[in-house]
Design goal:
heterodimer, A: six-stranded parallel β-sheet, B: mainly alpha, 8 helices, extended
Chain lengths: 314, 207
């Protein structure tokens, strides 16, 4: 096998081993690469942040997730919940996936450890698992009356009687519906909640699916997108920069990584709140490795073509 | 009758829902509220159907000793143990249900999805070749987006994330919108065919 062949036909087992090493090492020894934010994430942050301290506004989070997508989506769940708890924003959580209900429990429990004063059914309410078939009637019914459409929370208590529902009636009181999903997030909210009731919609999605949703972003049907681990890392960064420091959102700071660096010391941030940013170190190196492999493969391909041409001329 | 009645239900309800969307009248709203109440009741039965169907499929596999029938036992036992633990001790943090979820379901699911990274790396290395102008454009776009989505891209040049955003916002958006318009038109045509009784394959049973 000549050189061009050998760089074109690297055994995939070597690729797997090198990739595994490249992914694992930055997780153990974080590189501390800077996180820069993008407009779709900043817009989502701004929209949620606009509900800060308003008792008649709430963020509605739909956890359309299963454990397979947790590495990418779970940091988004944590970052948004943390943002809401820091800014005194009411949160509703729901899942039409049986496993999503358990993910809600996990996420709330994890974030609540840092917020002992946050009270269930007062500051947040977990609607729990609802059957998939109820998705359409609930999404439409919330336009008239959330308590009637959903009826009970995850613990089986009637929503009418919960203190959190005092100033909340329908979509007029929902600041944004955020669906975080590994499949096709946002469609039901874009089609029924946005089109019919004008509610804001945002999504969190795995990186492989993110490109599908840009048309909705341009039309304004989506206010923002968290795309994969990068989106989660950006949101973590914004929460750390503004909400954690009690600062209002500032475009100048959000768009300038150099300014943001002075805002906080990442080493002092609890691991659970910087998981995506540490994961992005791994992803950055993995992307470089894949690019390197692609370049190697193409060098081999062009050397082959050159050799074939030479043979043909001879 | 077996085919005419379902066809009639679909046709009548199809037209009623179209009318409801465009006619904001009290009767139309009452009809819709009635539908929501009924669909909640009927929808809940989907769980019973789902569990019943799963048990039937796997118990048949075990009875027939079909290939890999042993895994069917794992499915059934998993279903029974997880459900019982949820019914008996609840599904809150610290319960056996959550322990099963965190110790079995989460690592198993995450492992499956993580394999994607290895397949993508291997597939990109093997398939991304600048064989033609189109393939070269795709290759360059992929490299820019891969760099632009990580911090290293910004470190190389602040233009890389900008170009990445442009690729996603312009050429990607144009292609996706065209596809989605096609899908939308297709869905409208299929819905009309179903409502009008032209498309009947959902009824099953061949001719």
């Amino acid at each position: 096998m000549n050189f061009s062949d050998s760089i074109q036909k690297i055994d995939r087992r070597y690729i797997y081993i090198i990739l595994a090493i490249v992914v694992i090492l930055p997780l153990i020894f974080p590189l501390g690469l800077k996180t820069f934010t993008t407009p779709p994430v900043r817009n989502l942050y701004k929209t949620i942040d606009a509900a800060a301290g308003k008792p008649n506004k709430a963020v509605f989070m739909d956890f359309a997730q299963s454990p397979s997508t947790l590495p990418e989506l779970y940091p988004m769940d944590i970052a948004i919940l943390r943002h809401c708890f820091l800014r005194n924003i009411k949160v509703f959580t729901i899942s039409y996936y049986p496993q999503g209900a358990a993910i809600i429990q996990m996420a709330i429990a994890e974030v609540k450890e840092e917020f002992p004063n946050i009270r269930q059914d007062v500051d947040y309410c977990n609607f729990g698992y609802k059957a998939w078939a109820l998705r359409l009637p609930i999404t439409l019914g919330m336009g008239d009356n959330i308590s009637e459409a959903i009826e009970t929370n995850g613990a089986g208590l009637r929503l009418d009687n919960l203190p959190i529902m005092k100033d909340i009636k329908n979509y007029d009181n929902i600041q944004i519906c955020v669906e975080i999903s590994g499949a096709a997030p946002g469609y039901i909210y874009i089609t029924y909640a946005r089109a019919r009731f004008g509610v804001n919609v945002g999504i969190g999605v795995t990186a492989v699916s993110a490109a599908d949703f840009y048309p909705y972003l341009q039309t304004g049907q989506l206010v923002g997108i968290l795309g994969g681990l990068k989106g989660a890392a950006e949101y973590e960064e914004l929460v750390e920069t503004f909400a954690q420091n009690g600062l209002p959102y500032s475009a100048e700071y959000a768009e300038n990584p150099t300014l943001k660096e002075e805002q906080y010391d990442l080493s002092k941030v609890p691991y659970k709140f910087k998981k995506a940013r540490i994961g992005m170190d791994s992803q950055a190196i993995a992307h470089l490795l894949i690019i390197l492999f692609i370049i190697l493969g193409n060098i081999g391909y062009f050397l082959d073509r050159k050799n074939e041409k030479k043979k043909f001329i001879k | 009758m077996k085919r005419q009645i379902p066809l009639l239900i679909v046709m009548i309800l199809g037209f009623l829902f179209v009318a409801h969307t465009f006619i904001p009248h009290t009767i139309s709203q009452d009809f819709f509220d009635w539908f929501i109440k009924w669909s909640k009741v009927i929808g809940s039965f989907a769980i019973v159907l789902g569990v019943g169907s799963l048990l039937m499929v796997h118990s048949n596999k075990i009875k027939r000793k079909a290939p890999n029938w042993g895994y069917s036992w794992i499915v059934i036992l998993g279903l029974v143990i997880t459900s019982l633990s949820g019914f008996i001790w609840g599904i809150e943090e610290g319960t056996p249900f959550m322990w099963i979820f965190k110790s079995v379901n989460v690592p198993a699911g995450a492992t499956m999805f993580s394999l994607l990274a290895f397949y993508i790396a291997s597939a990109a290395y093997k398939a991304f070749r600048a064989r033609s102008i189109e393939a070269t454009v795709l290759l360059i776009a992929a490299i820019i987006v891969m760099l632009g989505r990580v911090s290293i891209g910004n470190a190389i040049s602040p233009w890389i994330p900008e170009i990445t955003q442009w690729i996603l916002n312009v050429p990607n958006l144009a292609a996706k919108r065209a596809i989605q318009l096609g899908v939308g038109l297709g869905m409208t045509a299929t819905s009309l065919k179903i409502i009008l009784g032209i498309e009947r394959t959902y009824l099953g049973g061949g001719k």
